[in-house]
Amino acid sequence: IGAGSKQGILLKGGASLEFLSKIGAVVMDKTGTVTQGNFQVQKIVTAWKYSEEELLRICASCEQHSTHPIAESIVAEAAERHLHLERPVMLKEIAGHGVSAFLPQGRVYCGNQKLLEDQGISVNADLTGVGGSVVYIAIDGRFAGYFVIADTVKKDAESAITRLKSMGLGTVM
Fold it and tell me: Which of 29, 126, 151, 156 is catalytic?
């Protein structure tokens, strides 16, 4: 128990330590355990007349006041590319779905697929094998593209899971 404490591991009595010898699997959550918890834009796919940078600038303009980690990653990517963001004339957050805003380009929706479908906007995108969260964007009632946002895997995550498996333990995320 003392050795564990020096490594930052807190055990509540010897019974807890003895119980560890009986486990068969380790169940963990992904964010903060296997990943760093900092989302990044991995891919921008355009489906209309806008370039990647234009689409990013428009979406970041809509997301710039949000504290949601995915929104923050879009704004951070725009800042990294030194894009000038606009202030929406009107901005409405739609809980659990995304945002709606008015910009010079027209009415913009940024969010999940359901947000666009609720507005009667069909999403024409093949997302086979996409690893990460997807943020869709529609401009003036037309699907304009999407962003793939993913968390960064911790450097030691793969080796830690490999060590657990080599000890005969199953892993579940």
Answer: 29
